[in-house]
Amino acid sequence: MPFQALHTPVLNSRLPKVGTTIFTVMSALAAETGAVNLGQGFPDFDCDPALVNAVTQAMQAGHNQYPPMPGVPALRQAMAAKMQALYGLACDPHTEITVTAGATQAILTTILAVVHPGDEVIVLEPCYDSYVPSIELAGGVVVRVPLTPGSFRPDFERISGAITPRTRAILINSPHNPSGQVWSAADMLQLQDLLAPTNVLLISDEVYEHMVFDGQQHQSAARFPGLAARAFIVSSFGKTYHVTGWKVGTVVAPATLTAEFRKVHQFNVFTVNTPMQHALAAYMADPTPYLNLPAFYQRKRDLFRDGLASTRFKLLPGAGTYFQCVDISGLTVPERDLPEADFCQWLTREIGVAAIPLSAFYGNGFDQKVVRFCFAKKDTTLHEALKRLARL
């Protein structure tokens, strides 16, 4: 019997305002039109073959059944060593590190673990599109605080003004998607001072931690004792090792917070694919790949920025991530007055390069005439995109 002849109950949607993400829309349009896809944030080049071989070896060694719920011990130990070496944080791999099915699951599980209906959670806009739905699924109240337009610096006066007795957590992201802005040590110290007299938790999205340029250091919440003591620190192996499709990440948090996180994690995904965990643990024995990542991506950033310098795009600062934001207000094409989202559709169809409108990262669709490109691509891909964008 066809579905049309049956009665399907009407649902009261948990996420009534959520549709297909802009990333899916723009990637589909890029595929349809043959455009160079600089929209969605994923590499178009392969990872190190040694990492793939390590997965094969793990499978052949019989690592194909459920691992421990918190993650393979060797991987958690490798993460603990990395946190100590890079950020000076001594954390217990048994009670303070959990392997997750990517950063998005890590963030959702954190929020479900700590946010009760009616609790307020501060997000700094523009922000990654999973933050707000995760808070809403937990029954939390989203409190939107804008980063400073143009510079995307944190506005601590506004952040302070947003904290109330109902504030449960604040979610920060540095290096920042979509702007590429990087928080400084002074920023983190100011946040530490601001939160010190409160019971507000910190969710620190640090998936681009190894993509910080121009000699700067990543200022992880792990570096600051007053933040680390209240923080869930989210990392991504997918971003670090060019394997976004593997969906493996970690959450580092104090033992009491981790215990609550794991209560939800065990019923959310229970655990994460075993051979990938063993492979990542073996691969992390050599820190060279992630230590060299800043130089690897800075070269791509510079290549892309140099190519855009001859266009009428206005380059915004990009100190981290693999994204470059540009101001489109100076373009001398008839379509210059289009809203960002419409401009990105036009750019994809007519110029053959896909980008993402920054307005997609704001709840109210704030339009600043800024769009985001991803430069985590082969040099040949970037050169082809620049060739097309030169028409502007």
Q: What's the count of strands?
A: 13
| CATH class membership of the largest domain | Alpha Beta
Low-confidence stretches: none
From the coordinates shown, what is the CATH architecture of the largest domain? 3-Layer(aba) Sandwich
- Shape category: globular
Mean pLDDT across every amino acid position? 95
If you consult CATH, what is the topology of the largest domain?
Aspartate Aminotransferase, domain 2
Q: Helicity, in percent?
A: 25-40%
Q: What proportion strand?
A: 5-15%
Structural class: alpha/beta
> How can the largest sheet be summarized?
7 strands, mixed
Label this structure with key terms.
392 residues; 14% strand; Aspartate Aminotransferase, domain 2; 15 helices; 4-stranded antiparallel β-sheet
Question: Can you characterise this structure?
Answer:
This protein has 392 residues and is α/β, with parallel strands linked by helices. The chain folds into 2 domains: 144 residues, Aspartate Aminotransferase, domain 1 (Alpha-Beta Complex); 239 residues, Type I PLP-dependent aspartate aminotransferase-like (Major domain) (Aspartate Aminotransferase, domain 2). Helix content is 39%, strand content 14%. The strands form 3 sheets. Strands 2-8-7-6-5-3-4 form a 7-stranded mixed beta sheet, with helices on both faces. The chain has a 4-stranded antiparallel beta sheet with strand order 9-10-13-12. A two-stranded parallel ribbon has the order 1-11. Helix 8 links the parallel strand 6 and strand 7. Helix 4 packs parallel to helix 5 and helix 4 packs across helix 10.
